[in-house]
UniProtKB/TrEMBL annotation, chain A:
Signal peptide: none annotated. It comes from Bradyrhizobium jicamae. The lineage of its organism: Bacteria, Pseudomonadati, Pseudomonadota, Alphaproteobacteria, Hyphomicrobiales. Gene3D superfamilies: ACP-like. Pfam families: PP-binding (PF00550). This is Acyl carrier protein. InterPro entries: ACP-like_sf (IPR036736), PP-bd_ACP (IPR009081), Ppantetheine_attach_site (IPR006162). Residues 2-88 form the Carrier domain. Keywords: Phosphopantetheine, Phosphoprotein.
Amino acid sequence: MSSTFDQIANIIAETCDIPRDTIKPESHAIDDLGIDSLDFLDIAFAIDKAFGIKMPLEKWTQEVNDGKATTEQYFVLQNLADRIDELVAAKNAAPGA
Amino acid sequence: MNLDYFQLIDRIVDLNLDEKKITVEAQVPASHTIFEGHFPGFPIMPGVLLTEAMAQSSGWLILGVLKFERMPFLAIVKEAKMRGFVSPGQLLTIEAKLEHEGSGFAVTKVKGRVGKELKCSAELTFGLAPFPDPALRVHMDAKANEIGFPLQAMTHD
């Protein structure tokens, strides 16, 4: 089974037409890959579907805007993969999961 | 359908918030200047207007699901297929289903039919934002009333 990072990278490559080999764990989705907010909607939909989660994009954006988090925490791809793993783990730990 | 005001949906036939589905009707006018140009001698509904009709149908569904707390704005049109001509005077029946409600966005799948014949379909993504102006909220409430939006459906959870 491929890693969370690999799954995200494949989604980004397909959704944004970015060569897969240029997408690295240390890539910043916005600063390095040039993904804009509209493309990120598409990516979020694909990630939500693939992992059965709802990425809290609005909460993350608010945290960044409020200076409580940096964009790196959510948009460097390895960090994004870690956040997704946390969301999947939380979902699986929830009652009825 | 009031093309001059870009109001494409006439009636909400069914809104099922449990299944997150809506069915609406849109009566294509028998005549309009649009049909004089699109096309002379062969009047048909432009594909962009069919797409807009699918978007407005989805919009009403999303408004219902969100209890009018946020306004959906069309952001992405995917897989828009114009499968057959829609002529002046025909009645379009459009069904939209909420495919996914994400954080700040929603995705629908929509189909438009005339009778049993599938005429158009698409997958649409909307950004969800607080109403940017109170006048828009007032307008949407009035329009909801006009097209028979079942407000009681939103109080049933």
